[in-house]
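User: Please predict structures.

Assistant: First:
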Amino acid sequence: MSRRDTVNSIFMRKADTPAPSAGVEKNPDRVRTGAVSAMGASLQEMTEAARTAGRLQAQISSGFSVLEIDPADISNSSISDRIPVERDVDFDALVTSIAEHGQKVPILVRPDPQMEGHYQIAYGRRRLRAAAKLGLKVKAIVQSLSDNELVIAQGKENLDRQDLSFIEKALFAHRLEEAGYPRDVIIAALSTDKADLSRYISVARGVPQTVILAIGPAPKAGRARWLALVDAVSSSPMKVEAIIEDDAFADLDSDQRLQRVLSKMTARDTKKARDIWKTRQGQKAAQIERSGNKTRITFDERMVPEFADYLTTRLDELFDEFGAVRSQR
């Protein structure tokens, strides 16, 4: 369908909307507001439809071909960019939409370099799954892509739909790196920069994949929460494994699971922060706080005046003594 045909079809659908009954009481302000709102919605719909039609037309004109392919002849790419969930409401809605209205947007595939007549998917996995579930062939744009171009197309399609959560991007980046893709390709696939890419990968490395997969995509959680989990896990990796094995954990949604882990790990840190050092006379002289890989000692100057100053002047001596003791173990 050309861009003009797409726009015309939208206008025809709008024109088919029945007019209000003559006997209905009119409210000029409400009618005016409704008209403006309807016009805005129409323009937005026209714009999006025209853009989609324009992109597809440009692709086809540039030598792309659109085929109807048996889903069984299409394999997934080797690098997954999604974390599976038990129940995907959006996928269920997609299946219903395709069943009722057909597949509107093709997926993107490349010819399988190893098997003639087969293909590898770049993007559109959920549409492919939906077609397979319905027993339908899937509409696909077929394009020759290198391995690098395949993962870049895969990443950009997801980012254009703003559909990947922070941790899915982090895990995708880490998997690409583990598979040997160069940093510039990963940066292009995620439309990011070197600094953010390093943060993505550090988070994916800092939390065990078993924990990430148990928590799920956590679509509402950004970088801050996952960085907090990295800090918590670094100090007690065994504790987080115990939390995700709790039977009640599985009953929570993904964002609630992340919050549960953070809350329990924070509670552990808070308990340790209450450690108190007492003198031989029983005076509470200092509070010892431990958080992750940091320890802080706060002296009560009323109980041990000038002791902090004395201690700081002997740090080098104490550290040498500590090293000597360790070497003898």
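Second:
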Amino acid sequence: MGQQVFVCEIDIDSLWPEFSLTDVVSPTGALVWITGGREHEKGLVGLGEVTRTHLTGRERFSRAQRWWARESQQFDDPTGALVAFMSFNYEPDRGDSAVIVPQHLLRRDGNFVSLATVSAAAATSPLQFLENLRQHRETHSRHTTIEWRDGALALDRWQEQVSRAVGRIEAGALDKVVLARSIVGTADAAIDLGWLVTQLAQAQPSCWTFLVDGWVGATPEMLVRRHGPTVASRVLAGTVKRSADEFIDGDLANRLRESDKDLAEHEYAVRSVADVLAAHCTDLDVPAEPSLLRLANVQHLATDVTGELADDVPAVALAGSLHPTAAVCGTPTERAAAVINELEQLDRGRYAAPVGWSDAHGDGEFGIALRCGHVLDEQQTQIELFAGCGIVAGSTAESERAESEAKLQAMRKALTP
């Protein structure tokens, strides 16, 4: 028999007032997947580590699934409580992917809270264990300032590349390409990751706040969720900033809904997801018109695609089949990828790639790592932030610059002491 997994359900009323999963994330981090804000919080926090693996290559998704299927057999886990957190690299042979199994898994869905622990013996007091974590966590940032600089490309150079991409599109070489840029921040002291995920989770309750192996963010885009036979994907493409003025904000939203450019960009992204899921699903529901998703700093055109699985394909395999979508690469995919490699001049790492979790039965959730950053050093004083823009016919360098700044603002604001 493998290592024992002890599961304890916890009465939320026995925890501290206004309990949140983020309360137990230390300054040096944890494994985090949270949505809903404090009022409707749902998600997972992994603490400690039992085992991990790092993968690369085109087979990284299938190898991750095979590794986790094998490792999960090493645990005596009758309720299937354990999950593996996963963060994949964007390009097959550039960087690596991580799969990590935590020693403690804190799970919350509304008022339901549980703690699963891999241990030789049951924890004597789960409540005391959590209280100790809360008391030892520093609850405020230790840095006071961050200085920002351009990342791989200077901003004016990136805008030139956007104009070049528009020229390729208008010449008929491709329909859409996503060009990303980065900025690098240097703090005067260590960035408190527990504090950072708290800020993100509170400010972006409609997103999925994540922290896996140094990559942290709040993504609005669910690449794929599998729960039993049901799968779902939220597709976002087409973006406009928010305004503090309610009238202006509504006008911006109406313009987004009526924009031929943004509607075309959105249609490419929806089609790329629906075509993949159609190979595995029956009763695929693809709404004819997008809805509007309002976040704290931007508004998106959004389409929620749902279906029922016709086979037993796990969430990890679905994520691998979907990546990269037109929302983060472009269309046609191969042409867009070639233009990205030529013009972007950026190592995306795990930006714009799947991040999330999977259980041993193949269920799980994988978002696209957007609105995110990567901690660059062990001292946690440097962080690189990423933002990408979908370039289509009619795009302009100035409008894409404004969109990228709006997208970067989610992380920059969360990092402000």
